[in-house]
Amino acid sequence: MTIPNRSDTSRALAARLVLGLRDEDPDAVLAVLAEADRHPRGLFDLAVAAGTLAAQRVSDDEAPQLVAAALDRLTKGDQ
Q1: Which one-letter DSSP state was computed for residue 25?
Q2: Residue 38 half-sphere exposure, CB side, CA atoms within 13 Å?
Q3: Which residues contact 49 (CB under 8 A, 6 or more apart)?
Q4: How many CB atoms lie within 10 A of CB 5?
Q5: Do residues 28 and 19 lie in contact, with contact meaning Cβ atoms separated by under 8 Å?
Q6: For residue range 29-46, what is the model confidence (pLDDT) as tens digits?
Q7: Taking the mean position of all CA atoms in its chain, how far away is CA 21?
Q8: Is the pTM higher than 0.85?
Q9: Angle between helices 6-22 and 42-56 (to 10 degrees)
């Protein structure tokens, strides 16, 4: 039996987070965040793993449009 390391745990949590977001399941998302928060640096590790997971799926052509859309949302939220 192997013991999962911190990286494996973070990747598994990130996958569960993405599935919860995709399914628009706030309870699943909250459960993942709560689980990550129980570990030292868990939320940080989850953020890095989720960002890495997202970056691996974004093409070079899509990146500028995604950044522009995100910045647009941020600026609209400040108004």
Answers
A1: -
A2: 7
A3: 7, 10, 11, 13, 14
A4: 9
A5: yes
A6: 999 999 999 989 999 999
A7: 9
A8: no
A9: 70
Q: Which of 40, 46, 41, 36 is nearest to 11 (CA)?
A: 46
Predicted pLDDT of residue 7: 82
Distances (CA, A) of 39 to 14, 25, 33, 44, 51: 14, 23, 11, 10, 19
Q: Retrieve residue 68's tokens.
A: 């522009």
A 10 A CB-CB count for 53 gives 15
Long-range contacts, 37-42 (Cβ 8 Å, 24+):
39/6, 39/9, 41/6, 42/10, 42/13
